[in-house]
Model the fold of this input.
Amino acid sequence: MERRKFIKTNSIILSGVLTFPGELFRRKKELRFGWVTDIHYARREPKWNRFYTESIEKLREAVELFNTLDLDFIIETGDFKDQNEQPEHNKTLQYLKEVESEFAKYRGDRFHVFGNHDVDSISKTDFLSIAGNSGISRDKTYYSFEKKGFRCIILDACFKTDGTPYDNGNFDWKNTIIPEAQLSWLKKELGKSSGPVLVFVHQQLDGPGDGDYFINNSEEVRKVLEDSGNVLAVFQGHYHEGNYNKINNIHYITEKALVDGSGEENNSYSVATVTVSGDIRIDGYRKMEDLEV
Done:
């Protein structure tokens, strides 16, 4: 399976020009993972340029490619599934089972990040009873794991500003926070990390707390990350157009949504390669651009 069969050809280079970048990355100790976001799978009619039903085929293409590569894990950064216009609990659970069945065809470790649509008409407990994370207890909505000297930290911003967790549609997608208890946990995780740290979250951390797509206490969370001195990058979903920012030496990379647009040419997924020296390469497929920082 050749990458050029799947990739959109345009790319973004955000740092110095590298000659033969693939060879350079292979000479360094590196972590590689497959990444998708905002799949929004449901069997419903398209809306807002979201082709919900087509997401299952798009995900299948991504997982088939991931299985041909030497990856350390794959991850989806939220809004894994969706629901009907008039939600029915059992149908929503069925959509989750169907999309998880495709994700589970990856022959290796796989991980989930909570997005707001993941609890649109079900609970976090419902979600985790079907879509588990490799080696992680099913009662953990935020967690961490280590791979090749990297600590990977998965955050859950699906809480309202009063600290109440999103539950069965009880939320406003613009009302999102990392609660104090999770912040305390995050500080401890960062404190015991001797190597570089990668953070994964659905909602945006690289903007003001009063922005539509941003976690309401994003500035406070960023300060925790910056004070640790060991966070290399944050990988995000939620903002379907994708984006890149660098704030106080931390890279904030937002993947484009898989669900948007009809047809295989409108798919979006990537393979991220991160080295211990701090280099990051995103090999983007279909609509997702390449990125080197």
Remarks:
- The helical segments are 21-26, 55-66, 89-103, 124-130, 180-191, 218-228.
- Residues 111 and 133 are 5 Å apart (CA to CA).
- The longest strand covers residues 268-275.
- The first helix runs from residue 21 to 26.
